[in-house]
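All the exercises in this workshop are built on plain-text protein records. Sequence and backbone structure share a record, each on its own labelled line. The question running through the whole workshop is how a given chain folds. The record below serves as our worked example for the rest of this section.
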Amino acid sequence: MKKILILLSAVCMLAACGALRQSPEEAARMQAQVQERLDSRRFKVDITHMHPTRGASRAVTSPYSLTVNEDKLISHLPYFGVAYNVPYGGGKALNFESTISTYEELPSGQDRRTIVITTDNEEDILVYRLVVFDNGRCSLNVRSRNREPIDFQGNLDPDADPARKEKD
């Protein structure tokens, strides 16, 4: 009886692992949606993990995100680290909305796109380096003049259209 239970649980675990994989059609659809969002410069990245320069990495549970809507950047990100020169009270940190100064796509691997965005939030000049993979996974590095750099991981939301939200 014990052997049957072990065998049954092993079969269920293998079936569950197979169910998590995307079919080639789903992967191609996701890749097309990711490319469409990046080409239009209208996308939203939902953050799942943060990696401060000092200290342990942390999972992010609140709805933190980075949104690009053509020439506008909406940064709603947590920050942990050392600040060198900031206004009293901490300032805006990484929570602000501003105009994009430069938007540049760098040559990268076949399965990813690297985008470098520079912006000025009236307190600091920030550089966002975003690597987006075909499956929607993202890696984000934020560098600032007045703060230590910080890294994030997340997922590009292929269904989010910032332009549509503004029209509503």
